[in-house]
Sequence to fold (241 residues):
Amino acid sequence: MFSSEGPTLRELAVQALSSVERGYDLLAPKFDHTPYRTPDRVLDAVARGLEPLGPFAAGLDLCCGTGAGVEVLARVCQRDVTGVDFSAGMLEVARRRTLPPGPEVSWVRADARALPFGPAFDLVVSFGAFGHFLPRELPGLFGQVRSVLRPDGCFAFPVAAPPRPGSPGYWTLLGFDAAMRVRNALWRPPFVMYYRTFRLGAVGRELSRAGFRTDLHALPEFGRRPDGSPRARLVVARRLP
Fold:
C-alpha cells in the first residue's frame, strides 16, 4: 500500500484491529512511508508561522509519533525539545531520526492525558493526533497541556478547513468515520481515530475553558477557498495566568 516501502494491506488490517497503542507499535517501522505522516509542507508552514512568535526556550511535541514535528521545534526553540508519545514503537523510530545540530532532544513515553512534566515548556505543538481523542476528552487533554506550559506559553497546531458538504473529501471523511464507528461497535479493543470530531468552534470553546486565549493565523502556503477563507490555519493558544 502507498509505496513499495509502505505497509501492506494485510499489515494495515492487523493494525486497524488492534488497540491504538498496539496498532502504532506495529505500524511504526513503515509509518513515514504512509500518508498518515504529517507532510513536510505542513511542518514547514507551521515553523514559518511560529518563528515571528518566538524564539522559545523549551518545546514539547505532543503525540510526537516518529518525530517529524520535533524538527519544527528544533527550528524555533533555543534550549531543548522533547517528544512525547505512548507508542514505544513510534519512539524507537524517532530515536533513530537524524536531526540537524541545535537544541538538545529527548524522547519520553507517556500518555498525553497524564503528562509527567511540570510547567517546563514555552511551546507545545501537535500534528495530526487529535482524532485519537473523543470530544469528551478534550477538556482533560487541554488541561494537561496548560499544566506543562510556563506562564504565557503557547499551544500551537495546524487545522485544515473542513471539506464542503457533498464534495469528494466530505464523503471520504464521513465514510471513514462511519466505518470506524462500526468497527468499534463490533470489535474490541477500540481503535479511536475520527476525522470529523475535532471541530474548530468547539475546540476554541474548550481552549477558553481550559485557560487559553486563542488566535488564528492563516497559513498562506495553502491558499484560500472560493469564499476567501483560509484553507489552513495555525491555532495559537496562549496560556492565561
Remarks:
- The helical segments are 9-16, 20-27, 40-50, 68-76, 88-95, 138-148, 168-186, 200-210.
- The two ends are 48 Å apart (CA to CA).
- The beta strands are 56-62, 77-85, 104-109, 121-126, 149-160, 212-218, 232-239.
